Amino acid sequence: MGRHAGGLALEADRVGVVRGGRRVVDGVDLAVPVGQLLGVVGPSGGGKSTLLRAVVGVQERVSGRLSVLGRPAGDPALRRDIGYGPQSGAVYQDLTVRQNLAYAAAAAGIRRSGRAAAVDRALGEVDLGGLADRLVASLSGGQRSRVALAAAVLARPRLLVLDEPTVGLDPVLRRDLWAFFRALAADGTTLLVSSHVMDEAERCESLLLLREGRVVAHDTPEDLMSRTGTRDVGSAFLSLVEPDTP
Ligand SMILES: Nc1ncnc2c1ncn2[C@@H]1O[C@H](COP(=O)(O)OP(=O)(O)OP(=O)(O)O)[C@@H](O)[C@H]1O
Question: Which top CATH class is 5-90+158-241?
Answer without folding.
Answer: alpha beta
